[in-house]
Amino acid sequence: xxxxxxxxxxxxxxxxxxxxxxxxxxVYYRDDFEVVQKExxxxxxxxxxxxxxxxxxxxxxxxxxxxLLSEESADIAWEIRSGWPEYWLVDPLDGTREFIxxxxxxxxxxALVRKGEPALGVVHVPVSGVTYTGAxxxxxSRRTAGGLPQPIHVQRPCASPVRVVGSRSHAxxxxxxxxxxxxxxxxxxxxSSLKFCLLAEGGADFYPRLGPTSEWDTAAAHAVVxxxxxxxxxxxxRPLQYNRxxxxxxxxxxxxxxxxxDWLALFEDYSEETPRPNQPDLS
Length: 283
Prior knowledge:
Blueprint lengths: L2 H26 L6 E3 L5 E3 H17 L5 E3 L7 H4 L4 E9 L1 H5 L6 E8 L2 E9 L4 E6 L3 E5 L6 E3 L9 E6 L5 H7 L5 E6 L3 H7 L5 E4 L5 H13 L3 E4 L18 E4 L27
Parallel strand pairs: 3-4, 10-11
Antiparallel strand pairs: 1-2, 4-5, 5-6, 6-7, 7-8, 8-9, 12-14, 13-14
């Protein structure tokens, strides 16, 4: 798929994400809704499934030749998906815990992955109606409900003090120890993939993730960061990639806005002292 076709797809995928967001809100604004536990003990709601169905059906019609991998339909053998040159990678409701706790920072994430790289990403915020889009060769934008897309860019050079974005729901004392090496910094707490988007629009400088996430949690917002001029790298400095192994878990990573600063040096003596939990710490 060419970059021109990817750019043409971006608007349509944004519309699909908005439709999925409406399906989520139909559940969110009810007095109650059912929550069940999946096998990995992560929560699942009616809204996750409703959003999944909207996205699955619309993408199947839009691009019947491109396979789909969604958090809610992830039982696809590695032997099959390892041969995919491109595919849709979807989290129908990123931030399910935020959703359950009636916090508005949950999103719809839709990414097109090509040869391990996120080439197109749409992150829609159902409650606010804001949609972030990033496409290879076409830049990144932020669009409010009913408005026109406005270009967004990471901030270079980074702010002083550095603005570090982190999880609203989960503190990480080990990470805090390493962040002391920054000197003075300001921590901005936020849920779901909005942490990436805040960095992409220049509202934060650095998002370090020392802890497990799944590939569908990050791909769409990763595409937005890349298109906005940022980078997402593993702790050895390599670009974060997708569908390169049987496991869906990402390695730990750093999302950065200003590449002129040596962010990796903060973690040069880092080692993971405790095993990862079986369940990704998704927020």
